[in-house]
Write a structure and sequence with these properties.
The structure holds 2 protein chains of 2 kinds. Chain A is mainly beta. Helix content of chain A is 0%, strand content 60%. Classes of the chains: A mainly beta, B mainly beta. Chains A and B meet through strand 4, strand 5 and strand 9 of A and strand 5, strand 9 and strand 10 of B.
Chain lengths: 112, 116
Amino acid sequence: KQEVTQIPAALSVPEGENLVLNCSFTDSAIYNLQWFRQDPGKGLTSLLLIQSSQREQTSGRLNASLDKSSGRSTLYIAASQPGDSATYLCAVRLDSNYQLIWGAGTKLIIKP
Amino acid sequence: DGGITQSPKYLFRKEGQNVTLSCEQNLNHDAMYWYRQDPGQGLRLIYYSQIVNDFQKGDIAEGYSVSREKKESFPLTVTSAQKNPTAFYLCASSPLLRAEGNTEAFFGQGTRLTVV
């Protein structure tokens, strides 16, 4: 059974730092992996989607990588800003069905 | 603008009542989903639908029901059989998994349901 883990559960860093959020999954047979951002009391905003054949995707200050063989994805945030404070979730879509399997998220706080 | 609209944003339910959460999308997506989010936990799938008039149970379907009479709409009913319904409910949609290219999922802004 596919399991997705995000460590750490919470992270607090000063503004301006580069940081890495981790997502690991137990079964490498994935269709794609998607990173989302969730602000308190809000829905999810899609940040990046990486297909299983891709190694990384970039959008602005965000870079997501995928290593299927090791079951890992990382979300790199460059030059962090207070507005980046949110919970970041990763989800994998399996080959065999429509389900997204979710991590519990990393709550990120960027201190001014 | 294209997107997913959930309503209401906040909903209060008395014990023993059924309530229906609305989800509408204008993205022309075939697949739609309902998730439940509880503090400190990952999202859990309640129901999903790949096509009009068809839907499948997710991991926690007990106490919930759905319908898919139109491609754009996927309402969720929380019945009195759901013993612990207080949670944040999220609706999502995506293109079909077997379609070429992107299967990116998009989410609504959520409905917070509280039992009073």
